[in-house]
């Protein structure tokens, strides 16, 4: 038995090859710098998890039955994405530079399968967007209030343990020691990673808008409380164990176990929300 290979004509393959080549040229620099940030920055490392999950979810969802190509609209989005890519490249603004590549992917999807396919793949697109690090201006404006809040909550926990403590801005004064709650201790990266995980959880396990919205709102205080626990534990260990507990390897490694605590807390809230939804559906069906 002979197997005939499909014949691809030049005029059919040329647009696909040219589109792929143009996309590779435009996206090479944004994507390589994005992967570099994922690798080098602990605040962006969750991108290595979110992007493969997004690709898997898109593959699993497949093509929508209602998908219809919209070439004109797709070309308009692609033109906007290319202009954004050029402008952000000139300004060296990495966030919009990377968003332009995501916009180009949306444009290609609309060109071949229409807006309904984009809506069908909304979760993969959202997860890819969340894997893009926030602009420096945004992180700087958010980090300081979070630092102050983490310092205040950590000091309150230390006072509950009857430890003499004094707070001055984001500097915690302990007996014979001073702790500076730096930007990396603001909890911003844990909030970003936890929000991304929460988006995945609410989509996979919850079915009502109220349940999804409540879980998304809960994710932020969970991350803040866990980060305050990190500040408290650092101060507690500095007082009762020694100053090395507040610096270097010992200080940095406390973040990972506490982030796992936040994931466990998120899992518990998700389970409670799932149980509540099931009971409400059961009560509605009996009524």
Strand order in space, largest sheet: 1-2-3
The poorly predicted ranges are 1-5
Q: Shape from CA axes? A: flat
Secondary-structure element order, N to C:
HHHHHHHEEEHHHH
Number of helices: 11
Largest sheet: 3 strands, antiparallel
Tally of distinct domains: 2
How many beta-strand runs?
Answer: 3
Secondary structure class reads mainly alpha
Mean pLDDT: 80
Helix content: over 70%
Which features characterize this protein?
75% helix, disordered N terminus, 287 residues
Write a structural description.
The chain is mostly helical. The chain has two domains: 10-133, no CATH class; 137-282, no CATH class. Helices cover 75% and strands 4% of the residues. The protein has eleven helices and three strands; from the N terminus they run αααααααβββαααα. It has helices at residues 10-40, 47-61, 71-91, 94-113, 115-120, 122-130, 136-160, 188-205, 209-240, 248-253, 255-286; strands spanning 166-168, 171-174, 177-180. Helix 1 runs antiparallel to helix 4 (94-113), helix 2 (47-61) runs antiparallel to helix 6 and helix 8 (188-205) packs antiparallel against helix 9 (209-240). Mean pLDDT is 80; it is low at 1-5.
Question: Summary?
Answer:
The chain has helices spanning 10-40, 47-61, 71-91, 94-113, 115-120, 122-130, 136-160, 188-205, 209-240, 248-253, 255-286, and strands at 166-168, 171-174, 177-180. It has 287 residues and is mainly α. A hairpin with a 2-residue loop joins β1 (166-168) and β2.
Per-chain topology:
Elements: H1 10-40, H2 47-61, H3 71-91, H4 94-113, H5 115-120, H6 122-130, H7 136-160, E1 166-168, E2 171-174, E3 177-180, H8 188-205, H9 209-240, H10 248-253, H11 255-286
Antiparallel strand pairs: 1-2, 2-3
Helix pairs in contact: 1-4, 2-6, 3-4, 7-9, 8-9, 8-11, 9-11
């Amino acid at each position: 038995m002979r197997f005939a290979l499909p014949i691809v004509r030049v005029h059919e393959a040329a647009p696909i090859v040219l589109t792929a080549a143009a996309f590779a040229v435009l996206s090479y620099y944004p994507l390589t710098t994005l992967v570099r940030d994922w690798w080098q920055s602990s605040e962006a490392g969750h991108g290595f998890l979110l992007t493969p999950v997004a690709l898997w979810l898109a593959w699993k969802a497949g093509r929508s039955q209602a998908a219809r190509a919209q070439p004109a609209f797709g070309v308009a989005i692609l033109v906007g994405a290319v202009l954004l890519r050029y402008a952000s490249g000139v300004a060296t603004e990495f966030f919009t530079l990377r968003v332009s590549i995501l916009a180009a992917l949306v444009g290609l999807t609309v060109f071949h399968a229409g807006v309904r396919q984009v809506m069908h793949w909304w979760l993969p697109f959202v997860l890819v967007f969340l894997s893009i690090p926030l602009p420096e201006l945004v992180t700087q404006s958010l980090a300081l209030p979070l630092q102050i809040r983490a310092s205040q909550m950590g000091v309150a926990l230390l006072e509950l343990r009857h430890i003499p403590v004094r707070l001055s801005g984001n500097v915690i004064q302990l007996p014979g020691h001073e702790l500076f709650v730096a930007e990396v201790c603001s909890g911003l990266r844990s909030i970003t990673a936890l929000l991304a995980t929460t988006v995945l959880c609410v989509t996979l396990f919850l079915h009502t808008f109220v349940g999804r919205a409540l879980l998304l709102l809960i994710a932020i205080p969970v991350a803040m409380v866990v980060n305050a626990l990190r500040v408290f534990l650092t101060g507690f260990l500095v007082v009762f164990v020694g100053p090395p507990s507040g610096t270097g390897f010992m200080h940095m490694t406390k973040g990972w176990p506490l982030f796992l605590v936040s994931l466990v807390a998120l899992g518990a809230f998700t389970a409670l929300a799932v149980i509540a939804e099931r009971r409400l559906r059961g009560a509605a069906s009996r009524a």
